[in-house]
């Protein structure tokens, strides 16, 4: 059994910030459960672009409002508490925050925790196990 709090993760190597976002990585690949689970906050009035070529990500909005734009189709979706989006096609996407947003994110395969977004906004492919 694993029990963790965001308070104990804050300020550790599981608390990762870059640009307008901060990700508290609660469950990582090293935990051996087949997915990773993160609490992510993105600053108000910010725009962030991502492209997870090697991961599927599910995102559940629990605080704040904004817009998700699929950069491949141009389609835009409003984001608010209670909204979930699933990047099951590895879509390049943009998150525009009207207010600070807080979301819970699940990645498959799990991230190890030390990934850095490359110039396209993607994490590298996970190492073979």
From TrEMBL:
Organism: Mycobacterium adipatum
Gene of this entry: ectC
A Pfam family it matches: Ectoine_synth
NCBIfam families reported in the protein's UniProt record: PRK13290.1
InterPro entries found in the cross-reference section: Ectoine_synth, RmlC-like_jellyroll, RmlC_Cupin_sf
Record's protein name: L-ectoine synthase
UniProt catalytic activity: (2S)-4-acetamido-2-aminobutanoate = L-ectoine + H2O
Family: Belongs to the ectoine synthase family.
Coiled coil: none
């Amino acid at each position: 059994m694993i029990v963790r709090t965001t308070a104990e993760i804050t300020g550790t190597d599981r608390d990762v910030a870059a640009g307008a976002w901060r990700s508290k990585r609660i469950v990582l690949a090293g935990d051996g459960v087949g997915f990773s689970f993160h609490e992510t906050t993105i600053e108000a009035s910010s725009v962030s672009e991502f492209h997870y070529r090697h991961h599927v990500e599910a995102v559940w909005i629990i605080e704040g409002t904004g817009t998700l734009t699929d950069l491949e189709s141009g389609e835009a979706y409003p984001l608010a508490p209670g909204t979930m989006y699933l990047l099951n096609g590895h879509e390049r996407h943009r998150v525009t925050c009207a207010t600070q947003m807080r979301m819970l994110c699940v990645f498959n395969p799990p991230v190890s925790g030390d990934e850095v977004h490359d110039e396209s906004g993607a994490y590298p492919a996970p190492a073979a196990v």
